[in-house]
Amino acid sequence: MGRAPCCDKANVKKGPWSPEEDAALKAYIEKNGTGGNWIALPQKIGLKRCGKSCRLRWLNYLRPNIKHGGFTEEEDNIICNLYISIGSRWSIIAAQLPGRTDNDIKNYWNTRLKKKLLGRRKQSNFNAKDTNNGIEENSYSNALSSSALERLQLHMQLQSLQNPFSFYNNPALWPKLHPFQEKIIQSLQSLNDGSNPVVQDALPSPHVEQGQKDEFINKPQHDGAKIHSPQVQLLENIPLSNSGVPFVASESNNNPMHSSLAPRAAAVEQTNNVGFQQLGALQTELDDILNNRTMGYMPQEDHQMAEFDCFREINGSKDSLIWWSNDSDTRSASSNSWDSSTTPALLTQGMFQDYELGYNL
DNA sequence: AAGCAGTCCAACCGCCGCGAT
DNA sequence: AATCGCGGCGGTTGGACTGCT
Questions:
Q1: Does the residue A99 lie in any domain?
Q2: pLDDT range class, residue A255, cuts 50, 70, 90
Q3: Is the CB of A55 under 7 A from strand C?
């Protein structure tokens, strides 16, 4: 069943706002507030606009203390680091940058920051070597560790956990384990019916109390938005470094995931054998890129598109290159690495957090 | 000066989650 | 429990602007 449109589209004006419309909307909201009903707002004001359009105009342009353009290096860092950590959650990223709107940040990322990051990367030996068929896993690992951007790219794929069809949520895509390991996991799962407190304790549990959760979820963001996703809690629980990058837990002994998924995780880690312990180095290199300390980068602008093509080529070669794995039983080629749903190479401590996150959802 | 391509960004679109009924 | 309406969000679009040939 289709949803009724939020407004009469035939009688609604579209396109750029006139100064008169802006003034009317701004004056009304400053005087009366939104009244908790954006849909009814334009009628009250006498604007031939969709309520959603009014809301957007207010939030992105008319609202007081909005900053446009002129992003600082610090803001660049925060945006990039948060993007690496949580993906395209623009509203959350915007919440960390007072005066910035999600739309602004999204545009800024898409038009400038992404290019700033990707564009400076030399078409490195990673590409030169790995576009050949039959990648040898160790050489892949070496190339990977030499390139913060590829790691950045992979780390972004970690965010695909949010996708219910992702690798992590789809056991069919998981690498084969030793039968004994499978048995252990099955035993744990069968015991996890809530009746066994021991196992229950060992399995992941929400890491905030309900009260705290509600408090956070209802906490208004800078633009009045509410955060719905519990994943935000994870972000909130990740301390930021000076440059804004969330720290990834280096010790996971207290992580309940380890008691329940350790066998599989260990096996998976072994299967893939791709070192990813260098998130710190990633951060350093990211800082270098953002601050134009571009050791090893090609400064020439004419390399930029070639570097984009590098990724396009990698990601577009659906059949010729399974670039993240040599396990033919478990591969699931990604057609878009920014959005890939499969990244077994990333089996790090951080991933355990994401496992946990997945359970918490 | 004209045409073209690339860039930027405001605004739109459609989906989703949540609360109300 | 099911349905509906709204707010919120992220992806995409289209037009204005800019730079190059």
A1: no
A2: very low
A3: yes
Identify which of A85-99, A122-136, A144-158 has the greatest average pLDDT. A85-99
d(CA A23, C1' B20) / Å? 33
Q: Last residue of a domain, which of A21, A46, A62?
A: A62
Least confident of A6-20, A53-67, A102-116, A293-307: A293-307
Instruction: Using the C1' atom of nucleotide B9, identify the protein residue whose alpha carbon is closest.
Output: A107
Q: What is the pLDDT of residues A179-189, one digit of tens each?
A: 544 444 454 44
Determine if strand B comes within 7 Å of the CB of A199.
no
- CA A3 to C1' B14 (Å) is 11
Which residues lie below 8 Å from residue A352, measured CB to CB, with a gap of 6+? A249, A252, A255, A257, A258, A261, A265
Residues composing chain A: 361
Distance C16 C1' – A8 CA (angstroms)? 28
Distance A353 CA to C4 C1' (A): 37
* A221 Cβ nearer than 7 Å to chain C strand: yes
* Residue numbers of the domain that contains A156: 125-360
Helical (H) or strand (E) element with A52 = helix A51-57
Closest CA to A128 of A147, A114, A110, A109: A147
* Shared domain check, A196 and A326: yes
| Contact between A352 and A359 (Cβ < 8 Å) | no
Most confident residue range from A35-44, A160-169, A284-293: A35-44
pLDDT at A329 over 70: no
Give how many domains chain A has, as a whole number: 2
